[in-house]
Every structure is written in structure tokens, then in C-alpha cells.
Write a structure and sequence with these properties.
The chain is built from nine helices and eight strands. The protein is an alpha/beta fold. The longest helix has 15 residues, at about 15-30. The radius of gyration is 17 Å and the shape is globular.
Length: about 250
């Protein structure tokens, strides 16, 4: 497919593109001045405290497995998600990366993958929330009760903003589980922050142990102006967790 060939070229951007994105992040967060190329002192990051509720983790893990998501079987992500917030209070959840089973799509799950599996798990876990999903593969989009999905290209900031604007509420939780490249993850992070409520969360999944950890350590410093963040080692790879600063 023509769009896939173009996407492949964009996914192989060199390191200069990543560093350019770093400067965009610095400008966006107000850490770097446009008129003076100097980094300002950042405030201390808000510490993220996660209460451990093993019963809730087990229940969410069951939901992931029931719907065919590997968030439990391969990653143990239920240990984090089940403890972020009271499940009945969430009003809006966004996940970028529905999970394509088409082999010509980058980062596909294979032919046995179940598109939308985690969206259906969120649907059952958050009984009062609207669930929005986005993916680069328009062939797997669908609509169900409280679930709506849209095309999104994580390499295009305007595309990320567009899907965020589909929600009637600020997001309680944003999950980034799409292309898994530095540019895609950085775009998704910085352009969803304005659409997350005070105290809400953004989670970047499946960070490879072989990727540059300095990128995420750098982000922890930069994001300290907007909230707290941490890099968590999971069963396979790492997870980056950001909590937007709670308004006083």
C-alpha cells in the first residue's frame, strides 16, 4: 500500500529528527525560551504514589485476558492501571493504538491479534467512561456501546489534536500503544497533555529495554513543570507514567 511505504520512510527518521523534537518539547513546556536558547530551572516533579490493590489488579487482568489483550499476559500492566483512580469516576479514556492484525501495518499484532481488545477491557473496567480509540490502520476501526474509534497518525501533531477533540470531556487516562517510535511517542505525549484533566494520567507502553533510557530521564526533568512522571520496569520492557499536575 502506498501510505504504508511512506510511513516506513517516516519511521526511519534519523537522530536529527529526534533532537529537533526534543527542542519542540522544551519550547512547548516553557523550559526553553524562543528568544534565549537556555534551559530554565524546573520545579521539582510531583511524586506519583500508586496504592497497591491486588484484588483490583486481578480483576483488570481478567478483563484483559477475556477480551484478548496482551496487556496482562505479556506485560502485567494491570498492576499499574488498576490502581490509578477509582474506576467509577473516570469519564473519558483515550487509547492510541487499537492493535492491527493486518500484516502490512507497522507494529501489527499478527494475524491472531484482536483489534480493539483493550478498548473493550476499558469499557468493562470503567463503567461510566466514554472510550476513544485511534489507529493508523483505518480498516480496523469500529463503533460499539461507549466505544468510538478514529484514524490517527502519531507522526502528525494535527492528527493527534483532532482525535483528542472528539471527546466531550478532558481525558482521565491516555494510553499510548501505537507505533512505538521516539517521534511518535513524543508527539502523542506533548499533544495530548492539554486534553488531560488535572490529576489525569498519560501512559506510554512497551518502551524497549534497548531504547535510550536517557530520553525518558530527560522527559522526567522537562515534564516536572507540568506534573510528575516515572519510568517503570515491567515484565517485558518499560512503561512511562505521567500524572498532570493537580490544580491548586
Amino acid at each position: 500500500m502506498k501510505w504504508n511505504a511512506g510511513l516506513k520512510r517516516k519511521l526511519t527518521q534519523d537522530s536529527r529528527g529526534i533532537f529537533a523534537k526534543f527542542f519542540e518539547v522544551l519550547l512547548f513546556m516553557g523550559v526553553l525560551s524562543r528568544n534565549a536558547w537556555s534551559i530554565r530551572k524546573s520545579c521539582s516533579a510531583v511524586p506519583i504514589q500508586i496504592e497497591r490493590d491486588f484484588k483490583s489488579a486481578e480483576e483488570l487482568g481478567d478483563a484483559f485476558r477475556l477480551h484478548g489483550s496482551d496487556k496482562s499476559t505479556h506485560h502485567d500492566y494491570e498492576r499499574i492501571y488498576s490502581n490509578l483512580m477509582p474506576r467509577h469516576l473516570a469519564k473519558s479514556v483515550l487509547e492510541i493504538g487499537i492493535g492491527s492484525n493486518n500484516l502490512d501495518t507497522p507494529q501489527n499484532m499478527g494475524v491472531d491479534g484482536v483489534p480493539g481488545a483493550s478498548l473493550r477491557a476499558w469499557q468493562s473496567w470503567f463503567p461510566n467512561a466514554a472510550i476513544i480509540g485511534g489507529d493508523i490502520d483505518s480498516r480496523i476501526l469500529f463503533q460499539e456501546d461507549r466505544i468510538s474509534t478514529y484514524w490517527v497518525d502519531q507522526l502528525l501533531p494535527e492528527s493527534i489534536v483532532s482525535i483528542c477533540q472528539q471527546s466531550l470531556e478532558l481525558f482521565d487516562l491516555v494510553i499510548i500503544d501505537g507505533l512505538h517510535t521516539p517521534i511518535a511517542d513524543l508527539n502523542s505525549l506533548i499533544y495530548t497533555i492539554p486534553f488531560v484533566r488535572s490529576g489525569g494520567y498519560i501512559v506510554i507502553e512497551d518502551i524497549s529495554p534497548n531504547s535510550a533510557k536517557s530520553v525518558w530521564i530527560f522527559l522526567k526533568l522537562v515534564l516536572s513543570k507540568r506534573g510528575g512522571s516515572t519510568l517503570i520496569k515491567m515484565k517485558n520492557g518499560h512503561l512511562f507514567l505521567f500524572q498532570k499536575q493537580i490544580s491548586s
